[in-house]
Amino acid sequence: MPNSVLMERLHLGANELTGWRRSIYTVIFESDTPAGKAFDVGLIVLIVASVFVVMLESVASFRTQYGPWLFRAEWVFTILFTLEYLFRLVAVRHQMRYAKSFFGVVDLLAVIPTYLSVLIPGAQFFLAIRLLRILRVFRVLKLAHYVSEADVLLAALRASRRKILIFVFFVLTLVVVLGSLMYLVEGAGNGFTSIPRSVYWAIVTLTTVGYGDISPRTGLGQALASVVMITGFAIIAVPTGIVTSELNRLARSEESFGQACSHCNGGGHQRDAVYCRLCGESLESSRHA
Amino acid sequence: MPNSVLMERLHLGANELTGWRRSIYTVIFESDTPAGKAFDVGLIVLIVASVFVVMLESVASFRTQYGPWLFRAEWVFTILFTLEYLFRLVAVRHQMRYAKSFFGVVDLLAVIPTYLSVLIPGAQFFLAIRLLRILRVFRVLKLAHYVSEADVLLAALRASRRKILIFVFFVLTLVVVLGSLMYLVEGAGNGFTSIPRSVYWAIVTLTTVGYGDISPRTGLGQALASVVMITGFAIIAVPTGIVTSELNRLARSEESFGQACSHCNGGGHQRDAVYCRLCGESLESSRHA
Amino acid sequence: MPNSVLMERLHLGANELTGWRRSIYTVIFESDTPAGKAFDVGLIVLIVASVFVVMLESVASFRTQYGPWLFRAEWVFTILFTLEYLFRLVAVRHQMRYAKSFFGVVDLLAVIPTYLSVLIPGAQFFLAIRLLRILRVFRVLKLAHYVSEADVLLAALRASRRKILIFVFFVLTLVVVLGSLMYLVEGAGNGFTSIPRSVYWAIVTLTTVGYGDISPRTGLGQALASVVMITGFAIIAVPTGIVTSELNRLARSEESFGQACSHCNGGGHQRDAVYCRLCGESLESSRHA
Amino acid sequence: MPNSVLMERLHLGANELTGWRRSIYTVIFESDTPAGKAFDVGLIVLIVASVFVVMLESVASFRTQYGPWLFRAEWVFTILFTLEYLFRLVAVRHQMRYAKSFFGVVDLLAVIPTYLSVLIPGAQFFLAIRLLRILRVFRVLKLAHYVSEADVLLAALRASRRKILIFVFFVLTLVVVLGSLMYLVEGAGNGFTSIPRSVYWAIVTLTTVGYGDISPRTGLGQALASVVMITGFAIIAVPTGIVTSELNRLARSEESFGQACSHCNGGGHQRDAVYCRLCGESLESSRHA
């Protein structure tokens, strides 16, 4: 089972800490103690609440009616996240390593925009950055028992990365060719005003999204569109097949990782096997060897 | 093969019943006798018919034309379901256990709204509750030979629950980030009036639903939308891969559950195993026995 | 490998035929001789051409312009198909068995509507029946080497029939419950005028079709719609998982159907194995035993 | 592992080349040397840039504003691609074999349209041909380490070709039958003006694209459409299952190709095999050798 790289990155010299820094570390970075668990739950609630506030802030009717409340809530969240950031900085042994780690940057990005918005008005752009706070939930999930599950998924995706890349490139080629064909067939009159727009239509159709903002009107165009749709319907099988086959392989190799028998050299034993299934010798001896 | 939990919950002390209660129990709760089968078929017809009546009731043109007929039909269904509920209550040994079980509550919810609608007018809300009657069909299916099939599906879903949860959470993060990006790119003029609305658009697009009520107009917006679509087209592979791999694992383990050892009663041997993997005894003897 | 049931149904006593009926039988019902192959290709061309003529006939602009030509082409097709039907009837031994078989009925339906349209004017309904001619192509494909491939697919679908049925029923329950919830949330003003219409919307959304003819306008409605979409995106994994797992099982069992060794009773041999992979004894002896 | 046919086709007698032609060959056709790698990267940049220029040329607002610049860029690309084509022609031993190979034709098509557009004005048709340049990227990818990945995908698709063909044919039959049914049910008033148009609608719906340009209005039509949608949602499982099962089989056969027998050189042994399945000799000796 592959070790979580994220997990490793977090162990920033915890074993060498002592005293109160060690206590803070345990509460903030671990989730085995009751205090650690309570901290995690509280943090998730805070993060989700702050994301909701940011989203509501972008709704015009909400902003005009509850503007001051949203403003105050935002500052409360920012101050709490700032305190948390400082505590994290204090608790870890290698401050710079934490500050430059992925989650260190995310933690900082969660608080900076609010401070900057005081200096620079016109906060629309900051809204989006503040939404990155949602990434912080993964930090907590990571501590819970979801790491190994995510590891399996990531391992499968990583192993099939190249196949998926080729597939995506093939899809891009397909939509460029099909889109420019549609541009010739339908013409500017029916919404296919340029090749980039026709390629956009081809993507909308091939992925079976189908907005309907551009759609073919001529018979030939509809025939060609039908080919695109059936192609899209059929080739969705390819990424699915790739990921499934990879997950299968991982599951299979995990199931029969089985050690070989030291007596008859037979392999493929299940995990809880005690005796060789082929010659009946004890597997313990090979294990201890 | 996992035992159906639902099945267990139904055996509310049937073996200890005697006389006419036993007969009622057999007809209502079992489906092995001709009377039990006839009851099941009749019940399914009743349930489906009553669901159709409720649905038609919500169609304005039907209500004005056939209102009184629908009213009468509803009362006929309600009285029949009430009788059935009372019979069930009488037939089981532990009344409270049945009344508090999942299907006990569903059975009660199937009849209460009609009685309440006499007291409280304005029945629109009751319509929806009455539609929950459709859940009662599962009660009958459960008795037929569909239990083990559903069990396999549920087992696969249960085993992959965590992976799917992580996937859903990842998708939610993705749509929040992509939605707020679109909000910045397209702006309020093109329908992306707020971040929640942009996130809604991102969900509509990533899941390849594609209503087209909101769609990007600018070139940059369409380029970003294309990325969202191709991402959605590719990551649908993940839940599919998870469930398929789990179903495969279940099928494989079922295939090779093999014979049990006659010595230690241990099971789970592969097909070509010669010696018991737990006690080391030869499996031949059990085979020849 | 399962034998094609359709194939069997066609062998209507061919071996007992003699003389010219035998020759006709070989040409029409088989595809091993050059004449039989030529007949098959000609028939497919005829069928596809006649289907195109029927489709073009339904296009108003075509009908007004080329009406007489379409009319003549239709009669040519009908007369050729009638002759073919009569030859088939003559060639087979058991006329009634053929006439009542699936393809016998399809063959008859391919010609009757044209004759009836002389007696009964207003042929719109007959158009659709004439299109059933397309099913006749399967008759020819069946003779080619596509039978065993289709058999594998059908076997997988048949084996997973129950699981798929349960899934479809679950989806139906889901859309009834979600549709009626949407009816309460959105109300008649936004297009959700009745429960059946809301259920229709739920199906359009859950299957990720997304016409956009009805779409939620309120925030709560859009939130609920998002849940429906993500659910649909995730549960498409279930039928895919079922079919894939079944196809895997079939592929695996075909690979290692292997006979057991008569000496050591070991199984799981590959198809071309000559000696037992566990004890080294010849597998031939077991085969001849 | 199947050898890449494309790869083979490229080795146009390279080993027999000497001197400067050999050097050019190494730079252009191979990617192992620093110069070869630089050439590949440069070529990809050129191809992508030229594709972008062609696409922008089709956008009316761009053409009017930057017309002369696009014109000049196009001529720069064409001259560079022409030089490259000539170098390739010089470097290979068998000129005609290269010129007639797939990539030889693509390389030529990349430059011809620009020269022709001088002679024949009205270049809209040439735009589409010039976009075929995108295919040239595959030439470079082929040299990188993506060949074997693509080979596995292609092998899986080739092995499942027949099953997918049958599936596509089945889908076509389905949409013809369902489309003509819809034509009868909805009628011309609601957009279902002809059978071809109704079949187009059926394809749009079954593949879950769902433009919404044509959608059913009557209750019966919506009910039928619901059946089409759920069918489409369920049968997408079939192509996915086919491809996944094939990829699984390939992965499995790769895993257990096992060691070859030292006696008869036979391969394909399972992992736990003890004796050669073809000649019966012990595999142990080969293992210890």
Layout of secondary structure:
Four copies of one chain form a homotetramer.
Chain A: H1 5-10, H2 19-29, H3 34-57, H4 60-91, H5 95-100, H6 102-109, H7 112-119, H8 124-131, H9 136-143, H10 147-159, H11 161-186, H12 195-206, H13 219-235, H14 237-255, H15 284-288
Helix pairs in contact in A: 2-3, 2-4, 3-4, 10-14, 11-12, 11-13
Sum up the structure in keywords.
homotetramer; mainly alpha; disordered N terminus
Kindly describe this structure.
4 copies of one chain form a homotetramer. With 289 residues, chain A is an all-alpha fold. Chain A is 70% helix and 0% strand. Chain A has helices at residues 5-10, 19-29, 34-57, 60-91, 95-100, 102-109, 112-119, 124-131, 136-143, 147-159, 161-186, 195-206, 219-235, 237-255, 284-288. Chain A is flat. Chains A and B meet through helix 3, helix 8, helix 9, helix 10 and helix 11 of A and helix 11, helix 12, helix 13 and helix 14 of B.
Per the principal axes of the C-alpha atoms, what is the gross shape of chain A?
flat
Q: List segments of chain A where confidence is low: pLDDT < 50 over at least 5 consecutive residues.
A: 1-13
For the largest interface, the chains and their residue counts are: A-B, 70 and 63 residues
Order of helices and strands of chain A: HHHHHHHHHHHHHHH
Helix content of chain A: over 70%
Extended strand count of chain A: 0
How many individual helices of chain A?
A: 15
